[in-house]
Design brief:
Length: 431
Amino acid sequence: MRLLIKNGRVIDPSSGTDETLDVLLADGKIVSVEARIEAPGVPVIDASRLVVAPGFIDMHTHVREPGQEKKEDISSASRAAAKGGFTTICAMPNTSPVNDSRRVTEYIIAESRKRAIINILPIAAITKGLAGEELTDMADLAAAGAVAFSDDGRGVQNSRVMRQAMDRAKKLNALIIDHCEDSSLSQGGMMNEGPTSILLGLPGMPAEAEDIMVSRDIILAGAAGARVHIAHLSTRGAVDLVREGKRKKIQVTAEATPHHLVLSDTALEKRDPNLKVNPPVRGAEDVRALHEAIKEGVVDAIATDHAPHSPEQKEVGFAQALFGINGLETAVSLLLDRLVSKHVIPLMRLVEMFSTRPAQILGLRGKGRVLPGADADLTILSLHQEVTVDVRNLVSKSRNNPFDGWKLKGAPQMTIRGGRVVYPFDTFSRT
């Protein structure tokens, strides 16, 4: 299969490219990137006034399969990802059963090959059952295809166990993706601890619950010489700790979510259960610190932390609602509007955080570039299209998205995975 993309504004952070070029795809690879390419008989996509970027990668997605298919499954998650502009997503291990065995890892890989229209890569658990007590067979899981290890949703509370995990990860050259939360401090909390939680009379989750674990695990990673990636960074203190860890040449990277970048805890005054997340959206100073961190490169990647839930788990009042936001289909538009259009960061930086840096952190050698020889995974964006978020139009199985009704400027126009157009969906059969 061949495809020619003409007249697009090619943004490639790996090479610093930002110019109008043509891109020729064949057999799942990028064949040529030049000012003018002629390829008679090859289907053409006119990308005039559009941005052609490396395929976006979400390092942090809750696909829910196996075991929680009512919320989301491999097929629906892949379609939501494609609509949102993502060509690759990484599936967190808090499934049922937990992805703590070769059997589950291989199931996710096999079913994704059959039913997903984008790449789905499994992240395996650090500890058996996510219980935080005994390490999984990380070597076996890595051999089975796990791209990283995480106890996301809980975090490893026992420092001795986390130290063992860092040592094991170092030997395997594996990546630890770290949910940083001291549950003894945050237990029972529903939102960020601060003036708004006091005003609402809701129990708070203090910033120190995150900061303590970020500090601990950067120290442990440095001692072991391991690679640690801080998931859903949310506090000013944690930003400072990551910055200092990088200064000391410790192998620490970090991600931020769209909701932590565009919301502060005052948004919870309406007690919308769709705004209940862990870590919670924080105070205005934390949001400003995250903005500075993405400008500086302290934050390496954007990740959605897509966490779909059924209506009966969210529409039960704020106190009883589960934590989590459905984010795959709104992430790119949110940040094009709130970060790029408002000149917080340039487009090149946003593309880097959505593609090139995640590919580098995960070791995905063929991805994150628009260069000959790279995988033909591309995200095509409009910077001008105005969209209004309507949760009724989500292709995800769940609707727990707090941005319903938001008017945004900028949106994914086309998603190409392996040289095939996977979004818009009706284009797939024609290419």
